[in-house]
Each structure stands twice: as C-alpha cells, then as structure tokens.
Amino acid sequence: MSLEPITPDHALDLYLTDKANELAEASLRGHQYRLGHFVRWCNDIAAIDNLNTMTGRKLHEYRLWRREDGDLNKVSEKTQMDTLRVFIRWLESIDGVEQDLSEKVLSPSVTPDENTRHEMIDSDRATQVLAHLEKYEYANLPHIAIALMWHTMMRIGGVHALDVDDYHPDDQYLEVRHRPDTGTPIKNKGDGERLVAVSDQVAELLDDWLTQKRPDVTDEYDRTPLLATRQGRANKTTLRAYVYRWTRPCVTDNPCPHDRNPDDCDGMHRDFAYRCPSSVSPHAIRRGSITHNLNSDVPAQAVSDRANVSQRVIDQHYDRRTERDKMEQRRAYLDNL
C-alpha cells in the first residue's frame, strides 16, 4: 500500500467535512474539539507535518501528553482516545496512515460507575436559585431558561429549540420538535419530539415573559424563538452561561464554600462563572430535576417519557437517590397496600 502525504490540519478538515452529514451538530463539535488537541500536539510538540509517519509509539506519547496537558480523569481520557481511534481508522480508509494503526490507539477501561457523572443540583439549591430569580429577575430570560430546565427536565437543546408557537397557553404544554433544517436539531431527533405539560406557575411565568419581556424578534429562519434576545434566538452558549452564573452560591447571598475572596476570585466575572467550583452546568439542572421527581414518587415511566430518556439511562446516569432512599420509598408503597 502506498500512503499519500497529509498534514494534520488538512486531515482534520477532511474528516469533519466527511462526518458533517453523519454526526449531529453537537457531536461534530465534540470531535472537532477533541481532535484539535491532537493536531496541536502534532504541530507544536511532536513536529509531525505528515501523518504517514504516525506510529503506535507516537500515539502513546500523545496519550500521555494529553493526559497531563488536559489534567484528564480516566473517563475524559477514554473519551478523547476513543475519538482519536475513530479518526485514525478513518485515515486508514483514505491511505493517510498505516493500515490497522487504529488498533494501537490505547484507551483506559472504565467501570459503569466511573462512567457516570455525578454532578447535579439538589432540589433545595434549585429552589433557592429560582426564588432568587423570581425576586430579582422575574420573567427575564435567565429566569425563564433556568425555570424551564428545572421544571421540564429538558436538555438545553430542547429549551433552545422552542418557538413561541410551541407554547400552548390554554392547555399549558410545550411542544418539543426536531427542526434541523432551520437550526434547531434536538437529541434523539424525531424520537425526541414530545409534548411536555407545564404547571400553573410555569405557565404564568411564560405568559408574563411573552406579554411583558420577550423582544419582538425572529431568528435567521424567520421563526419566533421562545427564548429570545434582541439579536434573535438565544444561543446555547448564552443559556449555558446563565446557568453557571446563577448557580454560584455567592450570587444568591450564600457564603463562599471555598473561602475565596470575591475581589480575587476569577469566578466572580460573569464571563467566567464556570470557574466557580460550585457553579453547575445545564445538565446538572436536568440530572437534579430527574432525581427530584423520582424522590417525589413520580412514576419512573412518567419521568422517562417527560425527560425523553430510557429507564436504563436514568438508572445509570441520572438517578442519584441512595439505596436507602429507594428502600424507604419501597417501604412507603408496601405500607399503603
């Protein structure tokens, strides 16, 4: 087999172009981010300008470098190396590297428990955040976004995808739809489409947002986004920033649990709120809401349908109840028989 010379940058560009129709937008961005570190290592550390020369030993050197450079835990390292293996296998198909080189991409083994992320916001803290927003930011966009994430258990992509017409105020429900051709794909695509009921309180909040606060704008596809800024549809980066910003303990008048001086804490800056160790991501809101509903005796199937996630995935990745919590809930059912 005769290999054809290819630079790391050109290889990544070709790979992303090839995968654009195969991977969801979020997955494609993930591949671009993870493989970007590999290209950086090739260019700046290993001085590799032709991937034809890549070997198993060099791949292992990259693994060790990336582990140290990114301060990766085992799960993150596995994710990065598994993506690299897919990339190397693709390079084999275009004669960019030696055949079977992908078999030499080593990746750590992780247990199901290690592969489960435990970050979540508990119900007391979520209630405190929402109470603070209701008092000081009522029916403003951060309040709307975080309230929807908590009360509906939606992923950030589902909240981002909502249009004004997807809210049905008379019947108090939201319609989650997959519209990739107009910029709002959702997780699980068509299988993620569903109707999500909202409470009287959330419906009143949405009504006030629409009548008093929402900017009268459309997005680039002439759609009317429910979560809107003056520039159009609020992007997911903005929504994510709201969650990090408003889940910092100091913002809701709590003492800093990390004994940081506010004058020196980089997490105090609104653009770097994610650097606060106690701030959480939107997925932590979703995980906390799912756990809260399970703890509140909402049937598991109802939680599964509302959150658009299988029972198996709930058990492994979302349900943060302790075994004792589960036992006491079972006891309550048995006592009522």
Features of the shown structure:
337 residues, mainly alpha, DNA polymerase, domain 1, hpI Integrase, Chain A, 2 domains, two-stranded antiparallel sheet, 4% strand, globular
Q: Give the strand order of the largest sheet, numbering strands 1, 2, ... along the chain.
A: 1-2-3
**CATH top level label of the largest domain:** Mainly Alpha
Shape: globular
Q: Which percent range describes the beta-strand content?
A: under 5%
| Main sheet record | 3 strands, antiparallel
From the alpha-carbon coordinates, what is the Rg to the nearest angstrom? 23 Å
Q: Helicity range of the residues? A: 40-55%
Flag low-confidence runs: none
The CATH architecture of the largest domain: Orthogonal Bundle
Short description:
This protein has helices at 8-19, 25-45, 56-69, 74-93, 123-136, 141-152, 156-161, 200-213, 236-246, 282-295, 300-307, 311-318, 323-335; strands spanning 167-168, 173-176, 194-197, 228-229, 232-233. It is mainly alpha-helical and 337 residues long.
Please provide a written account of the structure.
With 337 residues, this protein is mainly alpha-helical. The strands form two sheets. A three-stranded antiparallel sheet has the order 1-2-3. The chain has a two-stranded antiparallel sheet with strand order 4-5. It contains 13 helices and five strands. Helix 5 runs antiparallel to helix 6 (141-152), helix 6 packs antiparallel against helix 8 (200-213) and helix 6 packs across helix 10. Helix content is 50%, strand content 4%. The protein has helices at 8-19, 25-45, 56-69, 74-93, 123-136, 141-152, 156-161, 200-213, 236-246, 282-295, 300-307, 311-318, 323-335, and strands spanning 167-168, 173-176, 194-197, 228-229, 232-233. The chain folds into two domains: 8-104, Tyrosine recombinase, N-terminal domain (DNA polymerase, domain 1); 123-284, Orthogonal Bundle (hpI Integrase, Chain A). This is Tyrosine-type recombinase/integrase. One of its GO terms (biological process) is DNA recombination. Keywords: DNA integration, DNA recombination, DNA-binding.
